[in-house]
Amino acid sequence: MKVQIEELSPIEKKLSIEVENSRVTEELTRAYNALAKQVKLPGFRQGKVPRRILEQRYREQVEDEVIQRVMQSAWQEAAREHKVDAVAPPQVTNNSGLKADAPFTFEARVEVRPKVEAKDYQGLPLTRSDTKVEDKDVDDRLTQLRESMARLEPVEGRDTAQMGDFATVDYVATVDGKDFPGSKADDVTVELAAGELVESNVAALEGTKVGEAKELDYSFPADYRVEDVKGKTARFKFTVKGLKKKVIPELNDDFAKETGEAQSLEELRGKIRADLEQGKRNKAQGEERDALLKALIERNAFEVPKAMVERTIDNMLENRLRAMARMGMDPRQLNLDFNRLREDLREEATKEVKGALLIEAIAQKENIQASDADVEKKLEELAQEAKQDISVVRKYFKGPEERQGLSLRLREEKTIEFLKGQAKYS
Prior knowledge:
Layout: E1 2-9, E2 12-19, H1 21-38, H2 51-81, E3 91-93, E4 104-111, E5 125-126, H3 135-148, E6 151-154, E7 166-174, E8 184-191, E9 213-219, E10 233-247, H4 253-259, H5 265-299, H6 306-326, H7 338-365, H8 372-386, H9 390-396, H10 400-422, E11 424-425
Parallel strand pairs: 5-11
Antiparallel strand pairs: 1-2, 2-4, 3-4, 6-10, 7-8, 7-10, 9-10
Helix pairs in contact: 1-2, 3-5, 4-5, 5-7, 6-7, 7-10, 8-9
């Protein structure tokens, strides 16, 4: 087999491949022998159909299959022998087909991993991130936690709605005197607070008594999801059936126990502070990584293969869809424009690909590796974060692919720490 390689660009090569006729002949013989065992033709026993008959009936089909098989095996052999670091399947072209007593030739264009030599990566500019947690931060988180654990209790001693109440209501509505989807509901809870009716805020019910009805007009937003009423004004009639008030738990040891996170308020404060500190550290690490990658990319210009960017976009989309699912959202019901989403992610994905290649190049140049001890330590950290037994985490990373992925992630983290150690802080 003869192979000529032409570098079309730093990220694309063209391989002109010539396969000897004897190899193609062997493949044709193998294909016709296999076909003869399967074909049943009148006048011939199965497996005894002459090849000339098979060629008359099935030549085009057999030759197409042989061409595909020969191109695939020859391409793989050529890529291995000539160390072509392909990042996607090749685009193959064959215009001549199979010719008797002549070699078979075809071309394969393929995107390849660029050869990146990282330069000028010492003294990258970096700003120190503030990771200090103030007492106010802890107090604010406690307030949020209390709000999230608030409960609704019936209002006693009065039957007139006040601002801040939660009212149980029935309602009917019309637009131009006609019903519309969602124009009627019973036993709905709304809040007497400023805001939009479509978000269950109905301040206009202030002063209404239980058992009374209140009518009001409401203009739906121009981008409202119900086509029949977007941008239109509806007439609502609310009937108040009951009143409730929000009761926020007191900030004490009982509240701490109720969260299930601590046995005392002091212990809860400590856990919240630790969580906030970890969150700030994680945010700072992300910001510092982004800043380092941005500076590296500015100092090291190179092209990246489209296939690597597309795969990165795929991963980003998958992660976002999983995040939506964890939040209880069904992406299939959101009418997402995936083409638009992909384009929105392209710049970020390109940065990630370039950054990963630069980090890899620096790690190789500086001989930065993740040892078995590093991997084991990381597994222990992951188990602690997930509050799981170390054996469970080890089982998840048991496969060679998963373990290699973790090792590469650790090598990147160590390389980032190396760059931070060489950075110029402001």
